[in-house]
Each structure stands twice: as structure tokens, then as C-alpha cells.
Amino acid sequence: MKRRLVILLLVMVAGALLFQMMRHDGGYVLIAYGHKTIEMSAWTGLVILALCFFVFWLLLRVINVGRNAGKLLTRERKYSSRAQSKTMAALVDFIEGDWSAAQKKLVRSAGKSVSPQVNYLAAARCAYELKDFSGALDLLHKAERSRGSSELAVALTQARMQLGSKRYEQCLATLNRIKRTAPEHPVVLDLLADVYFALDEIDALEQLLPSLRQLKIRPPEALRELEIAVFERQLALSTRPARQISAGAEASKAELDAVWQRLAKSLQKEPALIGVYAVELHRLGYDQEAEPRLVSALKGDWRSEWVALYGELTGANISAQLKTAHSWLKTHDADAVLLCTLGKLSLRNSLWGQARDYFKASLDIAPSAEVYELQARLLLQLGEADASNALYREGLEFSAERGAVNKLPGGTKPQLTKHRPDFAHKGIDTL
Asked: Does the reported pTM lie above 0.90?
């Protein structure tokens, strides 16, 4: 502080002396060039000269700074070009799946890269593929702190890695955090659909379907498959045992019907959903409603489990039910499951001989423990005890052999001899 005061005092004294000198003797300067002359005081000339020197110095300074800036810019461009070349080489390794090499190159070139966040995000994915999850998280943090960072890009990368490693709860938390700031981001909603499906959060997934459809986030075929899967699950959940015990069959059926009514008209024509609806109706004891729906489902999608179920249903008219199943032989005459179903329906209609022929035809195509037992019991009822006992033995041997095969490495199964039965000689055509 004292030093500053002394300097200020000296400047003031020097200024006062200079002012006195300028008052008593201003001096004289004459500049002549050709026929022109310029006159001024000496002090004015000194000021102009000082200004000229200052302008000259300033000009030199600007030229020097510009030259240095040019050199620096050239150097930065050179370094940036090298960094970009290294980044491109790293991305080639990334595409080829050389995760270790790609990660090293990406991290080394990140400092000089135009977009360091891209380097760190790609490097984080490499670390994830190498099962280095802590390293991947560290690189994500670096991406978040890098210049020009996008919080959304970092969070989406993290969510994808969490989903890929099946850390669904963490992934859901990450996506919910993003959704608060980007509620209709297509990628966020698409990933949420996958997480909800993996966590069996079917109610939440159903609520998400309108947004997926409106924003056209998935191709129509993929969205259709997702909708079918969601409502298959919803139909099945509506009749789960816990609800049946607490609410009873009638309340469960009301809930099942409510789910069915929520379906769009186009979805109510999907064989997969019709089939599940029929299965659940049967589970609740509403066979008469289930039977025509199962027929409708089988017209669009022939599934063995539905064909087998048809033989368990007690429709409104068991004779008509048998005729419906018999009509399927036109296109599925070598289907062992269908022949077993026809045998069961024939038993219900007291057509013992016809049931016997159907069971035998089914065993000839694809033996099964169930059909062996059904045929053996039928033969015993018909008074053919020896033939019944023989079939029981065959069934036991088949079951034992099947059990032994399932214990073999790889579950190798022996090839069964299959042939198409000659229905004309078995009387099965005469319904």
C-alpha cells in the first residue's frame, strides 16, 4: 500500500513539473515538404510521435499474435486429424468385435477427439462386452463429464448395457429417470417395453402399448406380436389360481371377459388369443363357451395342445363335437394327437369299436403313454383282458425307455417307425 502511494506521489509531482515546463516554454516544431509546411509546439510533436510509436508497436503485436495463432491452429488441426484417424480405426475394431483393441484406441484418442463423448460411450460398450462392468461405469462417468456431453445419450447407453446384462430393476430405474425429462422419447419407450416384458410387468406394458402404436416405435408386425404376447399373458393372469380361490370361478370369468373386451376387434380375431381365451374358459369350467372358440382358433393355427384339449372339452353337443373333429382328418389324417382326441370323443359317444380303431391308429403313428393306457382300459372294458395286459406292458416298457432316453446326454431319442394308417380298412370313415 505504501509503495503505491509513493509511486502515485511521484507521478503527480512529475506531472506538475511537466505542466509548468509546457506553460513557460512550449517549444517549436516546423515540418516542411515541398511548398507545404506544418507548424506545432514541441510538446504536441512529442505526443504525436509517441502515438505513432504506440500504433507501430501495437501493429507488430497483432501480427505476431496472428502468426502464433495460425501455428497453434495448424498444430490443433494436425492433432485433431490424428485423433480422428485413431477414432475411426478404433470404431472399425468396435464393429469387428475386437473390444480390447477398440477400447484402448478410443480412450487414447478421446482427449483430442472432436466429440470425446462418442469415444467414451463406445469404450464403455467395449468394457461391457469384456465383462468389465466397473470399467464400463467409469467410462460412462467420463462421457458424462466430457465437453458437449449429452446426459440422455449416456443414460441410454447405460440402460442398454443394464438390459443386456439382465439387470432389469436397475435398467427400469435408469429409464424412469430419463422418462421424467423425455417422456415420449422413442428409444426410451422401446427399452421400457423390453424391461416391462422381462419383469412380467404386464399391466404397465399394456398401458405403454398406445404410445408405441401412436409413435410408430416398432414395425407393425413386431408391435402386433408384442400386443398378442401381452394379452395372452393378461388372459392367463385373469384366471390364475390365487384369484380363483379368493374370488371364485364366476368372478374370475368376469375378469377374463373384461380382459377380452379390452382387446381391439382385430386382436379378437387372432387365433393365438382366441385359443388362450378358450383354454382359460375350460380351466374355469365353461366348456360349452370354450368349445366353439377353440374350433375357431384351430382354423387359423393348428396346435397340438389345442387339439388335445378339444378331446377334454364337454361341448353342448358331443355328437356334433365328434363330427367337427372328424372333419379335421381331411387335412390332418396322420396327426397322432388328433386321432387320440377322436378316440376320446368316440368313447364319450359310446362308440367303443371306433374309439379302439382311433387309439390303435394313434399308437401306430406316435406311441404315447396316455394312448397306451386309454387303449388298454378300453380293451379291458370290452372283455379282452389278455390284449389289455399286453398293452399295459407295452406302455410300461415305452415309458421306461422314454425315461432312459431323457437321461442320455443330449436327450437323444430313438427313431419311431411312422406310417399313415389305412382308415378305409379300420371303419373310421363311417361316422
From this structure: no
